[in-house]
Input
Amino acid sequence: MMTFQLCNPTEIRFGKGQIATVGDLVPTDARILLLYGGGSIKTNGVYDQVMTALADRPVEEFGGVEVNPYYETLQQAARIGREKGVSFVLGVGGGSVIDAAKFLAAMIATGLDDPWDRLAADPGSVVPLPNGAILTLPATGSESNPVSVISSTVRSLKIPFASQAARPRFAIMDPTTMLSLGRRQLENGAVDAFTHVLEQYLTLPVNAPVQYGFSETLLKVLIEWGPKLIETRSEEACENVMWAANQALNGLIGAGVPQDWSTHMIGHAITALHGIDHARTLTMIMPSLLRYKLKDKSAMLARYARNVWEIDERDDGRAAELAIERTEDFMARMSCPVRISQAGIELDPQAVLDHLQHANQTSLGERADIKGDDVRRIIAMAA
Output
């Protein structure tokens, strides 16, 4: 029987002009740490909107959060936060910045200069500072989920941290902020959201028609509107992709269903080793992983073929194969590599295994049956 616990307390404010309401959401007595990335918010008007809305609130700024946020950078931000008596962290940017804001809120709360080991061992043991999110690039759903994916250069690791207490108090989602983004950023965002759905959907068949039906709708939306976003930059495309990306990883479609995430763990290792965009590590691995696990995933792959891709094929095995081909074609249409060689790198399988071992990620997949030798074979298939 289906069993799950689901609670998502993040308040969503969606639509054009919603950034102006951030002052209503941040406590009036808060000392705010504004966290952002490379500084695009200061050229596209978002920064000005935020500062106007916060009026004369005390705001400390920290910019320079990387595309794959580094722990060592956040250590600098945490020191400033503690020195200035910050009581609220506001992340303004894409998923990386919002991941960083959630993790930073926990780092500051520990009072430690180097809390990595404590947070890696039990992130739920820390009560983080409250945080909020203003999303400018949809992809990860980080604005309303409890997960932060953080890299450490010193440890040569990229791993996820999850704490329910770290969910943002609110998420402001203005699709018009996407209009200034580059093509590659938009491609990555749509594809990342697409893989998030697949890693919760293409697993073991269980009695979850609501979750599966919603997943199929999200996949159809991303398949239709992802390319339109790249081609037209219309406000409709921005709205649909931004909302679909949020729903892809806010906890709802994964409630009560087996989840995979093996592609993500392998992808994290590749990013840690080669610095490749997160979404592109997923597309270069996922089709081969699905082929490798075709027998175990055939039931859901066949459903995916018929319900999402509308493939008219009675044989489950053949339908599953065709679904993988369509998935690969979609990723390629979004200009993402579907082979490791297309990314221009030489990937050492042993280095990937070493990362997975170090991250304690040695039994992957919904069955926990993807071991080291399996990862080697998947990488060989994806070469």
Notes: The first strand starts at residue 11 and ends at 14. The radius of gyration is 20 Å. Residues 200 and 254 are 6 Å apart (CA to CA). The longest helix spans residues 209-232.
